[in-house]
From TrEMBL:
This is dTDP-glucose 4,6-dehydratase. Its EC number is 4.2.1.46. It comes from the Bacteria. Its cofactor is NAD(+). It catalyses: dTDP-alpha-D-glucose = dTDP-4-dehydro-6-deoxy-alpha-D-glucose + H2O. It comes from Azotobacter chroococcum. The keyword Cell inner membrane does not apply.
Length: 354
């Protein structure tokens, strides 16, 4: 059965990976709904933008009237909600946008979905799904070296970003409990891979190194994250929205716990191999590593127990950290125009895809 999937935030990093996967590897029709804030880049969708199964709506998820129009026109069988403000440092500097987009926006989308869902015939109503994509940061951090986040780990968010995502998770579950809206929730570990906006750790370090700039590492770099290749995450999300059990939560992780400093050192070593012609004055990429003051409320360790999605849906990551990070570094070396247009801001001038 061919479905019509509405992806919010489909011009973002994870959203664009989901859209590309759906168009390239499934028969589904896809509508990408994105406000196109600074992190939204339609050039990440250039490879599929001409597909007859793809359409784009420039809409703010806080705009209920516009959402109603999209639902009425596209008639989705499922919603995959990825639209969110997601950068912790930005949330510390200016939390208001995070509350507006992640909390108020999710509420507006839930209400638009509920209005649409209530008007469907019985068979379409039972088949509809609202899939909310969240983060492991809602759980706070782990104290023990062997502890893992499970789907029942209590929420203790540490930053304005993670608190806003925790709020949206609670709203989604409440709309299921109170109104019967058929929802699914996923919480993922740190994503990395192609088309990642350069403010995030891995692309930031790659591009700084290529430019001979310092590689700023918070504190002593001992913070541990579980790294998930974005294309593995996209596959998992599509498995959940098409086969997951209504009302359930699925944690998605890469089984790749690494200290931040170790990640940066790995990037430096790969660049020594793949980009040996260094900027002037740089002998070794590792020499660019600089330790800076830690950010407020910085969580020490995140790690996901992904056994439920493996057991119930048969999903496992295809990439190890070693294979995925090599692919990522090579992608940035091969796609300089994409990130140069992001760094210059030109990507916001010449939009592709509608």
């Amino acid at each position: 059965m061919i479905s019509r999937i509405l992806v919010t935030g489909g011009a973002g990093f994870i959203g664009s990976a989901v859209v590309r996967h759906l168009i390239q590897n499934t028969p589904h029709e896809v509508a990408n709904l994105d406000k196109l804030t600074y992190a939204g880049n339609l050039e990440s969708l250039a490879s599929i933008s001409d597909s007859p199964r793809y359409r784009f709506y420039r809409v703010d998820i806080c705009d209920g009237t516009a959402l109603d129009t999209v639902f009425a026109e596209f008639k989705p069988t499922a919603v995959m909600h990825l639209a969110a403000e997601s950068h912790v440092d930005r949330s510390i500097d200016g939390p208001a946008e995070f509350i507006q987009t992640n909390v108020v926006g999710t509420y507006s989308l839930l209400e638009a979905a509920r209005r649409y869902w209530n008007g469907l015939p019985a068979d379409e109503k039972s088949a509809f799904r609202f899939h909310h994509i969240s983060t492991d940061e809602v759980y706070g951090d782990l104290e023990g070296t062997d502890d893992l986040f499970t789907e029942t780990t209590p929420y203790t968010p540490s930053s304005p970003y993670s608190a806003s995502k925790a709020s949206s998770d609670h709203l989604v579950r409440a709309w299921h409990r109170t109104y019967g809206l058929p929802v699914l929730v996923t919480n993922c570990s740190n994503n990395y891979g192609p088309y990642h906006f350069p403010e995030k750790l891995i692309p930031h370090m790659i591009l700084n190194a290529l430019a001979g700039k310092p590689l700023p590492v918070y504190g002593d770099g001992s913070q541990i994250r579980d790294w998930l290749f974005v294309e593995d995450h996209a596959r998992a999300l599509v498995e959940v929205v098409t086969r997951g059990k209504v009302g359930e939560t699925y944690n998605i992780g890469g089984h790749n716990e690494k200290r931040n400093l170790e990640v940066v050192q790995t990037l430096c070593d790969l660049l020594e191999e793949l980009a040996p012609n260094k900027p002037e004055g740089v002998e070794r990429y590792r020499d660019l590593i600089t330790f800076v003051k830690d950010r407020p409320g910085h969580d020490l360790r995140y790690a996901i127990d992904a056994s439920k999605i493996e057991r119930e849906l048969g999903w496992k990551p295809q990439e190890t950290f070693e294979s995925g990070i090599r692919k990522t570094v090579q992608w940035y070396l091969d796609n300089r125009l994409w990130w140069q247009r992001v760094l210059s801001g030109d990507y916001r001038l010449g939009r592709l895809g509608g």
